[in-house]
Write a structure and sequence with these properties.
Elements lengths: L3 H4 L2 H4 L10 H8 L5 E2 L11 H8 L14 H11 L6 E4 L2 H12 L5 E6 L3 H9 L3 E6 L8 H8 L5 E5 L11 H10 L5 E5 L3 H4 L18 E6 L12 E5 L2 H8 L9 H12 L1 H24 L3 E2 L6 E5 L4 H11 L1 E2 L1 E2 L8 E5 L3 H16 L2
Parallel strand pairs: 1-11, 3-4, 3-5, 5-6, 6-7
Antiparallel strand pairs: 2-8, 7-8, 9-10, 10-13, 12-13
Helix pairs in contact: 4-12, 5-12, 6-7, 8-9, 13-15, 14-15
């Protein structure tokens, strides 16, 4: 029998496992705690609108059928909402699947893919899996995007320019004028993938969606959105992309599996859009909690990045892995950042007021014994 490394693609072995972290039940079982604050995955702790749950409770008679491959009802709702052609929308099992679809469709061995850094790891991992080469553009010492560096590199050809706005994990972002400058500078042969997973949180700041500036975006592009964050549907896995053209969307659809978004996810996403007020209220509460938590952390002397997401990026000046482990023992789950150069940072999601307060109390307890 051949050794496993002779069977697997060599690129696969170079990709580190995704840092999923521990779930609620595992933390309770492992550490013997009863109250757990899960602040590691940028979920919406209030969940979806009650009407969404009611809608799901009434959906059971057709579960033996495959879902609508085209997600027609949801497609029409998104097209109306965003004023885009239905033929330019592609759906994914979460927007992260769309990153995979794009990379599998576009990236060839040796292709250059440019991204901001530190980054959502899958922006890099799917590129590497296809044999592409990742070029990182690091944020500056103030944890902000280096616009000059980004524009200079964007003016040069690459296969893809992919990044999140706002960025994950730093929370930093390009404001409307900076985004216009980037679009004006981007090489027309470079395909742009703009990941707007945190769009609904960001619109309350000095921010605009790439979809509002499409006339300035040369060449091919995809803007990604998800229902996993502000809409509270992370457990159902559904996201979508808006493509620059029908032709690009049709091409990417060849890589997409036919039934990649399940029936319950489609129904829940459509119902969530119908009850947007609940999401908007939830987002406002998260923003208030984010600013309060950032203020508390800065008052303790921590460097905290300015953020337009539902999370904060915090330099604790210690090993983030060891610090996160100490928090786990107290029942608080955060994400230690593992990418080189940022291994003293934690990414902390904004939870409920009770969860955020527990994080601060646990943080202070750990620091008191250092």
């Amino acid at each position: 029998m051949k050794p496993l490394e002779k069977i697997l693609r060599p690129e696969l072995m170079e990709i580190p496992p995704y840092n999923v972290g521990l779930g609620l039940n595992e933390v309770k079982s492992r550490y013997g705690v009863t109250a757990v604050a899960k602040l590691s995955s940028n979920e919406n702790p209030t969940g979806p609108a009650p009407q969404v749950l009611e809608c799901l409770s009434q959906t059971s008679s057709e579960l033996y059928l495959y879902p609508d491959s085209e997600a027609l009802l949801l497609r029409k709702a998104i097209a109306r909402r965003l004023n885009v052609s239905e033929k330019r929308i592609i759906f994914g099992n979460g927007s992260e699947e769309l990153i995979s679809i794009i990379c599998r469709s576009v990236v060839n061995p040796g292709d250059r893919v440019v991204t901001l850094y530190p980054s959502f790891p899958l922006h890099e991992d799917y590129t590497k899996l296809m044999g592409g080469s990742v070029e990182r553009l690091a944020i500056n010492d103030k944890l902000r995007i280096d616009l000059t560096k980004l524009i200079e590199r964007a003016a040069q050809p690459a296969k893809l320019l992919i990044f999140a706005n706002p960025m994950n994990p730093s929370g930093s972002w390009l404001n409307p004028e900076q985004l216009r400058q980037l679009f004006a500078a981007k090489h027309p042969e470079t395909m742009l993938v703009l990941d707007e997973a945190y769009h609904e949180y960001a619109v309350h700041g000095n921010y605009t969606s790439g979809l509002d500036l499409t006339e300035l975006m040369p060449g091919h592009w995809v803007v990604l959105r998800t229902f996993s964050k502000s809409w509270g549907l992370a457990g159902l896995r559904i996201g979508f992309g808006i493509c620059s053209s029908t032709e690009l969307c049709q091409a990417l659809d060849r890589t997409r599996t036919p039934f990649n978004t399940n029936q319950l996810a489609q129904i829940a996403a459509k119902a969530a859009l119908d009850h947007e007020d609940y999401m908007l209220h939830s987002v406002q509460q998260t923003i208030l909690q984010r600013e309060r938590l950032a203020k508390e952390l800065r008052s303790r002397g921590y460097q905290v990045g300015e953020s337009l997401g539902n999370f904060l990026f915090i330099n604790i000046n210690h090993s983030s892995i060891k610090f996160a482990e100490e928090l786990l023992k107290l029942g608080t789950i955060v994400k230690p950042w593992l990418q080189p150069g940022y291994d003293t940072f934690l990414r902390v999601s904004i939870g409920t007021p009770v969860e955020n307060e527990k994080f601060l109390v646990d943080l202070d307890q750990i620091e008191a014994f250092r």
